[in-house]
Amino acid sequence: MNRPPFSPVVAMSARQSLGLSPQQVTEQMNACGVPVDISMIHAWEVGEYRPTEDELFVLADVLWCRTTDLMEIEEPRTLAEHRLARRFSTAKLAHAIGMDTAEYERAERRNTWTGDGRQTVALLRTLHLTLPELAKVTEQPGTPGTDLPTPLGGGPLP
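The structure corresponding to this sequence follows.
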């Protein structure tokens, strides 16, 4: 399983600024339905191990911060980072945009976009992207947006 980027320093700092102990983080994550133990919290904070996507999403909730804070990125630069910033698993996002999960995962790995017009519109809305932003993060050639699918019936995308 590919694990998202993670900053141990940011996570520990966020926890300490809230006055939480590693044990309290463990308890809150478990209460949210994500089973972890204190050794995992310690391993994350010293950089020995990175949380899974689900663990990252719940840890951000427990630490009252954004997933991008814990990933230590200012602005998402890739399709995967935009998805993680909006707290979607690949399967959940693929379902939301009407795309096969394997096809969506391939798009992330290759950092390209091959969805049709409807999938493109759904992706833009779901991830709160503009067409030029999608073109930029998927490294589309030419003028941003010109090589991406348009909605059925033509016309501009929202």
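Confidence is low (pLDDT under 50) at residues 142-146, 152-156.
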